[in-house]
Amino acid sequence: MATAKKPEAKKPVAAKAAAPAPARKPNAAFMKPMTPSAALATVVGAAPLPRTEVTKKVWEYIKKLNLQDPQNKRMINADANLKTIFDGKAQVSMFEMTKLISNHLK
What we know:
Elements: H1 28-31, H2 38-44, H3 51-64, E1 75-77, H4 80-85, E2 91-93, H5 94-102
Antiparallel strand pairs: 1-2
């Protein structure tokens, strides 16, 4: 009678040490201060700002005046100041908004 050998318990495989992810560097093009046009300056101010800050300030303005469409939050309803930035459109999508804002930065 042959005795059955018990299967040996597998040893835990040592997890490879995860290489630390390199620190993410901001893109210099986004961080370069841009001068807003006169129309955009009514919303964000006339001081040169990086694109990221311009977008933040426009969103602060939109939220402060409650200009997001209540049914479709992706749409922005323009007031008089934003209409000049949005090429006269009464409503734009948030994705189109960034494109239209970039036309007002130098």
